[in-house]
Design goal:
The protein contains 15 helices and eleven strands. It has 490 residues and is α+β, with helices and mostly antiparallel strands. 32% of the residues are buried.
Length: 490
Amino acid sequence: MSSKYTEHTDKKAHSDTWGGETVQLSAEQIAQVLAGSYLGGRVVKGDEEAYEDISVKTEETPEAAMARDARRRQRIQEMRRRKKQQEMLRKWLLPCAAGVLVCVILAAAGIGRFVRKHQSGQRVPPAGLAQDNHLTQEDTIADSSMTDTESADSSGDVEGTKAQEPASDNKKSGKKAAYNSSQSIAGCFVGSSIADNFDNEFSKISSLVVRTLGGKSTKPPLTAAADAATALPASEVISKNVVFIDVEAGKILGQKDAAVRIPPASMTKILTILVAAEHITDPDDTFEITQDIVDYCYINECSNAGFEVGETVTVRDLFYGTVLPSGAEAAMGLAVYSAGSQEAFVELMNEKVRELGLSETTHFTNCIGIYDEGKTYSTVYDIAVILKAACDNSFCREVLMEHIYTTSITDQHPEGLELSNWFLRRIEDKQTNGDVLCAKTGYVVQSGNCAASLGVGKDGREYICVTANSTGVWECISDHAALYRQFFPS
């Protein structure tokens, strides 16, 4: 069914469009005219691929036809131009981007070398410059009121060590700044916002790093060997098991049955504090002494520091309580605090023994040194290796060096407990030809009185002495003094 379309517009408008005549079109013709305005004068019929020209049965002026063809050609040229641009972009964009990236990397490397060169130039003071006037890289800002001459005179600054001029803000204020020595980044001078931002970020990262007490030493375990110069202990030495080692030389200067297995007694606690220090981060944290701990120590007839059931002490107190009075309850407290139980802690102890290369001759079943036949054993040589490892830990070394320590105030002990290392307090009155710095004693019936100590000779070198099976406390201390006199350089 066809309908009629009649134009009822202004005559002049009809004459412009249809040549001045009123034209009546069918619905199909109207569709063809509309499609022709979008498809350039061609329309698709149905699903067929064939096209037919739209021939509006009106007259078209040559000028209009030429204008229409010109517009069509212009559109085609514009499409070709855009397509060519897209091809050029695809062809050159990736290589150009790669080139720019390489240039940025090279520029950054060049800047880094320049900054490092500048910093190294600042680190070397000129010859003849007074030591107390050295300009360091931590000297941040010179007084803006100083003249160039005054600045040079007061800081000892010369051309080779002048700090780089900072950004425009510093130039305006008349101040000069040195580059931050810890950050090789262009523009990262001390006091700048860049340096502050990096410091803040580094602080955040640093706060996430877990640091154990004293850190974990990177030094290799002590190894020492006997040679033709190795001597027997002097006749005045009563102890049956002896080793005396020059640590730096790695030489055994004196020994007697140093490789024979012995019950290590409370010398075990040297390893206890070392393992605890490597697994604890906060010495000011607290721990409550439990009934189980006190009962265990009482049943096994152990020596105690004096902490009571229910007393809340600091972890630091437990370290000093373990060494100075050889407190069993303090050692148990460290074990439970560090690993949750003594059994789990002993596993860590034996793991450390393997790490030190002593597993064939040393083994532990408790953290105190309680005699356990055939299961807890060591040698005086192995104890020397353990003592050296403990002294390489700065926190353990402080504990082993302390003569007197007062614990923190608690309800049970309002004035704290005064703890003493009697070995160090007694041997300091004896002649040793040097200084005895660290020590830990021990006693069980099966190994008698024993002790391990570290001293420094007049040559500034460290020496370790370990003895076992002496007949008494004073005799054990006298044995150490005699061995230091014998083997310390005179």
